[in-house]
Structure formats: C-alpha cells, structure tokens
Design brief:
Radius of gyration: 20 Å
Largest sheet: 5 strands, antiparallel
Oligomer: single chain
Shape: globular
Low-confidence stretches: 151-165, 193-199
Strand content: 25-35%
Structural class: alpha+beta
Number of strands: 9
Order of helices and strands: EEEHEEEEHHHHHEE
C-alpha cells in the first residue's frame, strides 16, 4: 500500500497509508522517484493551526498510468510536478514537465526553488532591472536569482574552493556587484557584515 508523510497535529510528522483513486481525464500517475524537503516551509506548517497537512511541493516521478485525453506523455517518462511526499504522484498532465534526457531526478527536483525566488516579482514591487537586497543567499535563492539578474551561472557552478569563497563567487558570477558575509569573532558572535567581493 502506498504511503505518505502527514503532519497530523502540531509538530507531529507521521507516515500514513493511502489509496489512489481512479484517474480523471487529463491526469497521469507514477511512482515517486524523489521529493524536495524545505525545512523552513514544512516546520512552519507543523507549527500552524490547521491539520492534517500533506507536506511537499516538488516531486519527480516515473509515469505508470495515463488517463484519457492526455497527449505527449508515455509510460516510463520521468516528469516534474509540484507534488507531495508520497509513494505515488497523480497530477493533471498539463501541470507537469518532462525531464530532459540525462537529468537526474534529484537534480531536476531543485527546479522548484526557481519558483520560490520568482515569486518576488508577484509579491513585491521589485521588477527586473531594479536594485534589491538579497538576504540569506542559501540554496533557495541561487536558481531564481540568476535569471532575475539576467546572467549565467559560472561553468563550474561555483563548486570549487572553500564554502564562503565558493558562495561569494557563485553570487558574483550571477551578476551581483556586491556580496557581503557575516563575520564571526573569536567569541562566536556575529560582527557587522563586510564586503566579501566587489566587481
């Protein structure tokens, strides 16, 4: 029987069973290959007030069933969807994307992070070309920041070198003119930020 992760009550994650229903016209279903965990989002849900919650917002799956009125999808195709942490994925085919040949599922699922950064254009007054402050700079911002900056990532993806330098180079290669980092003193307390790179 397929299983899924549920947030049953406040700060309580459980593994539960479920059954897939019949496919509706336009839908496809498949075996989940991987999902993307967002600790911040999901811990936020776990501290909410409405339960149960079925967490997850990105999944890659291999198509095993195809409903009526679906074109351009074949059994065995690997597809991306905004899916939950569960054994199978069922989605309208039009809300899924085919994975390019050779792209590993655990990398493809990171495409969802681009949507996180791109929502800034819907939820703020910022528009392409505006000067903005990007705070944080973790894995969630980089895929969306590069298109917003209208620059390409470096060939090595910023993977070489130490963590701080690597992070700074990746940001600079995305077109950010100034990158700052938090300074930690000998007493392990944060110091005022200073410029790490300037182009």
């Amino acid at each position: 029987m397929p299983q899924e992760i549920l947030i049953s009550t406040k700060q309580t994650f459980v593994l539960g069973n479920y059954e897939d229903g019949a496919l509706l016209p336009g839908q496809i279903r498949g075996r989940t290959l991987c999902t993307l965990i967002s600790q911040g989002t999901e811990l936020g849900w776990a501290n909410g007030d409405v339960f149960p919650i079925r967490p997850g917002y990105a999944a890659v799956f291999e198509v095993t069933e195809i409903g009526e009125d679906v074109d351009g999808v074949s059994v065995g195709d690997r597809r991306f969807a905004m899916g939950q942490h569960r054994s199978t994925q069922t989605h309208d085919a039009r809300h899924t994307l085919a994975l390019p040949d050779g792209l590993a599922p655990d990398r493809a699922v990171l495409a969802r992070l681009m949507g996180v950064s791109m929502t800034s254009l819907m939820t703020t007054k910022a528009r392409p070309g505006d000067r903005v402050v990007v705070s944080g700079g973790g894995a969630g911002w980089l895929p969306g920041c590069a298109p917003l900056c209208d620059r390409r990532l470096s060939r090595d993806g910023g993977r070489s070198g130490s963590g701080q330098a690597r992070s700074g180079r990746s940001k600079r290669n995305c077109g950010l003119p100034s990158v700052y980092r938090r300074r930690i003193g000998p007493d392990r307390k944060s110091r005022p930020r200073r410029r790490l790179f300037r182009s």
